[in-house]
Write a structure and sequence with these properties.
This protein is mainly alpha-helical and about 200 residues long. Helices cover about 80% and strands about 0% of the residues. The protein is built from eight helices and no strands.
């Protein structure tokens, strides 16, 4: 993948679209100061988590003798199952399945905001794959730079989440979520197919 392709993958898997509604729900009855602190903490924790996974993941791949193809297949399957579950939930009854209200504390920054809302398992898999497949340090620096851009977008989305939601409306967000959900299902299948092709 070129850098544009990596950005697209990171945007879909680690990016801001899936953060908007959860963040608004978590901070529904809080003031702007609390929201700002929560957003900053979540962005910091997510960035540190991704960086740790990126560099530790490469060592674990080598020490456990896990091939990139195996990791790609695992990431594709997880992405497919999670995205498919999201799409199915959009068309199923929501009675009894609504998310319970969150107690507004800064502990939300770690879970569930950073993990698993921002830092998804399939996003981590793609990050490790990208870093492991990089041929030189310059490419790895480019990948990490893209990751930082995505995390900045996540931070900005959280800081202005309530304003963004009021501007675009819930209906527009639902439509966008449906489109992205279907695209993620297709992306999961594509990763699985490409892995099988690569394995011959």
């Amino acid at each position: 993948l070129d850098f544009a392709g990596i950005f697209t993958f990171f945007f879909l898997m680690l990016g801001p679209v899936k953060i908007l509604v959860p963040f608004v729900k978590m901070t529904k009855d809080t003031d702007s100061k609390f929201r700002r602190k929560l957003a900053l903490m979540a962005a910091l924790i997510s960035t540190i988590g991704c960086l740790a996974a990126a560099f530790m993941g490469q060592r674990i791949l080598k020490s456990w003798h896990i091939s990139i193809s195996a990791l790609m297949l695992a990431g594709g399957i997880i992405l497919f199952l999670v995205a498919l579950r999201m799409v199915i939930q959009m068309y199923s009854s929501t009675h009894g399945n609504e998310t319970p209200p969150y107690t507004p504390t800064l502990a939300l920054a770690a879970s569930p905001l950073s993990f698993p809302t921002i830092v998804t398992p399939y996003g981590i898999a793609m990050l490790i794959i990208s870093m492991a497949a990089a041929q030189d340090v310059e490419r790895q620096v480019g990948i990490i730079s893209i990751l930082f851009v995505i995390m900045i977008l996540n931070l900005l989305t959280m800081l202005f989440a309530h304003t963004i939601l009021k501007f675009i409306g819930v209906i527009t967000l639902l439509i966008l979520g449906s489109v992205l959900g279907v695209l993620q299902v297709a992306l999961g299948i594509e990763i699985i197919l490409q892995t099988f092709i690569k394995m011959g």
